[in-house]
Amino acid sequence: MQPSQLSSFLKLSHVTGLGRVSLERLGDHFDGSFNGLVEASHRELLAAGLNNPQIEQIRDPDKQQVERELDWAKQPDNHIICYDDEAYPALLKETVNYPALLYASGNIDLLSTPQIAIVGSRNCSPGGAKNAFDFASFLSRSGLTITSGMATGIDAQAHLGALAATGKTLAVTGTGLDRIYPSRNQQLAYDIHEKGLLISEFPLGTGPRSENFPRRNRILSGLSIATLVIEATQRSGSLITARLTLEQGREVFAIPGSIHNPQARGCHQLIRDGARLVEQASDIIDELGSLLGFIAEQQQSDAKAETVALDPEAEKLLQAMGYDPVTPDTLVERSGLTIDKLSSMLLILELNDFVQSAPGGCYVRI
Question: How many CA atoms does the CB half-sphere of 145 hold within 13 Å?
Fold first, then answer.
């Protein structure tokens, strides 16, 4: 889009009640000229279906906001992508309610790559965090771009896993791209900008409003060929993303967890409702392989990790732990070990990634 047309489009995009469908209709009414729309008379705008408050906003736009966004788009790797631009992601455009424009910062070539959304709880368990990192790393090395929402917990670990593997990760934010939320993810946002891509439908300056995040989820699912849910409560926003994925005719995968873990109940509900149960990342590649042209066997061999041999005592301790968080006192009762011996063994198991410490002084097998 030419700069003058983009300026007019931005003025219109900030008018209350004008979404993508209305803008398309108005563009057609004025023969594709947004300049002509902005310069039209009051009578012409009324005839096009606009009301008086909307016409007032067109007549008196927030010029400072528009100039700010145009200046932002002139900076290296910053882009404003309108719905009729060639760079607009084709898969997102197949959805019903795709946004009129996207603000993008980073490598926009990632918009045309096959993506998988990875979502889950902000308050995830240590095992959930490790699953998100490991699954994202494997899937990234398999050729998928990892798309998530840059929240704490599962989202952040998915981005970090992709960054550690290939760097191909895309963050869909619920704020303007000049407002990083949560603030603790400043470094993560910078790393994604450098190696991946940040996108938002929200104008610069938009803060973290609660109603923005469910809207953000439709873009997450719309960009992706499938969604993987890793830990979610039964009222989690991740289930909104999963539902939207199904409505868009795409695959939903879910990782099961302990029946005692409330963070797993949303995943269990998804599996009952028809989501595909996955236990390892290669399950996803097996399922999507024919669609994406991957060779699952090759990816599995590339991702094999070196295993650590455990002595019989350590194996017995792991069996005594189970997969739910457990206190050292409970482990002493179950295993018959002294507290000193137990502490030593737990340290070795933790260093070799067999267990992780959990809140409340507990340990959990991973």
Answer: 25
C-beta atoms surrounding 231 within 10 Å? 30
Cis peptide before 359 (omega within 30 of 0): no
CATH 1.10.10.10 for the 312-365 domain, yes or no: yes
Cα 9 to Cα 19: distance, rounded to the nearest angstrom: 11
3-state class (DSSP) for residue 78: strand
- What pLDDT is recorded for position 296? 39
**Interval 184-218: pLDDT, tens:** 999 999 999 999 999 999 999 999 998 999 899 99
Architecture of domain 108-302: 3-Layer(aba) Sandwich (3.40)
Point out the least confidently predicted range of 28-42, 73-87, 105-119: 28-42
Mean pLDDT over each residue of the chain, to the nearest integer: 89
CB of 192 within 8 A of CB of 166? Answer: no
Whether 291 shows a pLDDT value over 90: the answer reads no
CA distance 42 to 44: 5
